[in-house]
């Protein structure tokens, strides 16, 4: 029978790799909570209309990359290609804005885009993201950049990535610049392919991040957006740069750094690396003060970012800093050395009582499938500290054997009540031996 394989661009995360994912996820979550950001979760499926309104019908994301389908009632639904729009829908639907109250959220989960798959680009990919609302100053812009800086520092990749920043000004600034850019690029229309030419007429700003080597020279000499920026946005950007300078955040200004979507304004930024080829963006963020107006007709200041987890892992692999020694740590191994039915039932009952009394410990039961000698040898190799043994002899005496593998101490035969006291003493007080408490 032919094995059914996973869908192209959607990868399994096997147990050994999932430890690395959990390690990275937990590091990021701790930082976000320390900055007082709260988690928000949204469905992975939304009404297609939501993305059509927010992302615009002229983008590649809408035209080519969304997973869209009809349900049994002929409603058009879409697997979320990004999560900012879903979060805005969520806070509007649940009335979370609370009369202009400041809001700070984080999220983690899969996104879906029908893209050409390559290393670092998948059709199901995972993002950690932050979204903030009702804060318009450069101070919050700097905070989310500082958060990303701290995340990358904790993960050990800070010196392998570069922060690039730019300002897009207000809506009027973008319109003025788009017209200037259009006139400049139109002169080179004979050098542009059909797809690029299409973008030129729909949204010329989206061409600035073009990576095709044969026409890079055209875009390297484009007029710069800074000449079109309004005074208030210039002041906003200067204030942001001052904060970054005073907090020792290194950055470079990339005047070609833009967002193709019309709702972006003022601050935009990316963390990039030279180690991942064309998929060089690890994190992207920016201010989107005009997005919510598309949905409710009211301007609400907002800024956020998204980090690609697969690219973080690829970078860690590339620079040989992937935490491959992370292992599933078993504190107690419970060995049952008899196949007798009631002995097994009783041993499971004992194990559950121990788990109830010591809920933070990981206790694994080995049902009688190997010799005791072999199981003890494996326990030593896996760094297990305590072994409990339960067999016919223990059942008759209504006791459990405890064997110490972390120090020279004779094994003992204890009643369950005394055993639990002994385990609490070991795992809660002998900190010299156990550094994970």
From TrEMBL:
<feature type="binding site">
    <location>
        <position position="127"/>
    </location>
    <ligand>
        <name>L-histidine</name>
    </ligand>
</feature>
<keyword id="KW-0547">Nucleotide-binding</keyword>
<feature type="binding site">
    <location>
        <position position="113"/>
    </location>
    <ligand>
        <name>L-histidine</name>
    </ligand>
</feature>
<dbReference type="GO" id="GO:0006427">
    <property type="term" value="P:histidyl-tRNA aminoacylation"/>
</dbReference>
<dbReference type="GO" id="GO:0005737">
    <property type="term" value="C:cytoplasm"/>
</dbReference>
<dbReference type="Pfam" id="PF13393">
    <property type="entry name" value="tRNA-synt_His"/>
</dbReference>
<feature type="binding site">
    <location>
        <begin position="82"/>
        <end position="84"/>
    </location>
    <ligand>
        <name>L-histidine</name>
    </ligand>
</feature>
<dbReference type="InterPro" id="IPR036621">
    <property type="entry name" value="Anticodon-bd_dom_sf"/>
</dbReference>
<feature type="domain" description="Aminoacyl-transfer RNA synthetases class-II family profile">
    <location>
        <begin position="20"/>
        <end position="316"/>
    </location>
</feature>
<comment type="similarity">
    <text>Belongs to the class-II aminoacyl-tRNA synthetase family.</text>
</comment>
<dbReference type="InterPro" id="IPR041715">
    <property type="entry name" value="HisRS-like_core"/>
</dbReference>
<comment type="subunit">
    <text>Homodimer.</text>
</comment>
<dbReference type="InterPro" id="IPR004154">
    <property type="entry name" value="Anticodon-bd"/>
</dbReference>
<dbReference type="InterPro" id="IPR006195">
    <property type="entry name" value="aa-tRNA-synth_II"/>
</dbReference>
<dbReference type="GO" id="GO:0004821">
    <property type="term" value="F:histidine-tRNA ligase activity"/>
</dbReference>
<keyword id="KW-0436">Ligase</keyword>
<keyword id="KW-0648">Protein biosynthesis</keyword>
<feature type="binding site">
    <location>
        <begin position="263"/>
        <end position="264"/>
    </location>
    <ligand>
        <name>L-histidine</name>
    </ligand>
</feature>
<dbReference type="InterPro" id="IPR004516">
    <property type="entry name" value="HisRS/HisZ"/>
</dbReference>
<feature type="binding site">
    <location>
        <position position="259"/>
    </location>
    <ligand>
        <name>L-histidine</name>
    </ligand>
</feature>
<keyword id="KW-0030">Aminoacyl-tRNA synthetase</keyword>
<keyword id="KW-0963">Cytoplasm</keyword>
<keyword id="KW-0067">ATP-binding</keyword>
<dbReference type="GO" id="GO:0005524">
    <property type="term" value="F:ATP binding"/>
</dbReference>
<dbReference type="InterPro" id="IPR045864">
    <property type="entry name" value="aa-tRNA-synth_II/BPL/LPL"/>
</dbReference>
<feature type="binding site">
    <location>
        <position position="131"/>
    </location>
    <ligand>
        <name>L-histidine</name>
    </ligand>
</feature>
<dbReference type="InterPro" id="IPR015807">
    <property type="entry name" value="His-tRNA-ligase"/>
</dbReference>
<dbReference type="Pfam" id="PF03129">
    <property type="entry name" value="HGTP_anticodon"/>
</dbReference>
<protein>
    <recommendedName>
        <fullName>Histidine--tRNA ligase</fullName>
        <ecNumber>6.1.1.21</ecNumber>
    </recommendedName>
</protein>
């Amino acid at each position: 029978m032919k094995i059914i394989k996973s869908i192209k661009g959607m990868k399994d995360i096997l147990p050994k790799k999932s430890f690395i994912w959990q390690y990275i996820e937990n590091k990021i979550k701790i930082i976000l909570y320390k900055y007082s950001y709260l988690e928000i979760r949204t469905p992975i499926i939304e009404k297609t209309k939501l993305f059509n309104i927010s992302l615009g019908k002229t983008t590649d994301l809408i035209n080519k990359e969304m997973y869209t389908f009809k349900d049994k009632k002929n409603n058009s639904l879409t697997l979320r290609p990004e999560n900012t729009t879903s979060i805005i829908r969520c806070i509007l639907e649940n009335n979370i804005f609370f009369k202009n109250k400041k809001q700070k959220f984080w999220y983690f989960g899969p996104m879906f885009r029908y893209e050409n798959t390559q290393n670092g680009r998948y059709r199901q990919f995972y993002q950690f993201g932050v979204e903030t609302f009702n804060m318009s100053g450069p101070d919050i812009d700097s905070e989310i950049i500082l958060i990303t800086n701290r995340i990358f520092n904790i993960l050990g990749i800070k010196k392998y990535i570069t922060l690039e920043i730019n300002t897009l000004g207000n809506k009027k600034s973008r319109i003025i610049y788009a017209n200037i850019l259009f006139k400049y690029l139109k002169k080179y229309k004979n050098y542009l392919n059909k797809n690029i030419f299409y973008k030129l007429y729909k949204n010329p700003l989206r061409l600035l991040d073009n990576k095709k080597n044969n026409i890079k020279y055209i875009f390297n000499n484009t007029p710069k957006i800074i000449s079109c920026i309004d005074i208030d946005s210039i002041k906003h950007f200067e204030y942001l740069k001052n904060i970054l300078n005073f907090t020792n955040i290194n950055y470079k200004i990339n005047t070609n750094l833009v967002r193709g979507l019309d709702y972006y304004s003022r601050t935009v930024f990316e963390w990039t690396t030279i180690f991942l080829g064309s998929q060089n963006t690890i994190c992207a963020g920016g201010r989107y003060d005009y997005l919510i107006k598309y949905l409710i007709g009211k301007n609400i200041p907002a800024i956020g970012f998204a980090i690609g987890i697969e690219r973080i892992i690829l970078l860690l692999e590339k620079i040989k800093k992937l935490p491959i020694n992370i292992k599933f740590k078993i504190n107690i191994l419970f060995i049952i050395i008899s196949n007798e039915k009631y002995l097994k039932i009783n041993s499971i009952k004992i194990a559950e009582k121990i788990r109830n009394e010591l809920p933070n410990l990981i206790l694994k039961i080995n049902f009688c499938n190997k010799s005791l000698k072999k199981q003890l040898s494996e326990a030593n190799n896996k760094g297990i500290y305590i072994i409990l043994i339960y067999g016919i002899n223990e059942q008759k005496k209504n006791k459990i054997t405890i064997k110490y593998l972390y120090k020279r101490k004779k094994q003992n035969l204890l009643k369950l009540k005394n055993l639990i006291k002994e385990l609490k003493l070991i795992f809660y007080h002998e900190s010299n031996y156990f550094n994970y408490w």
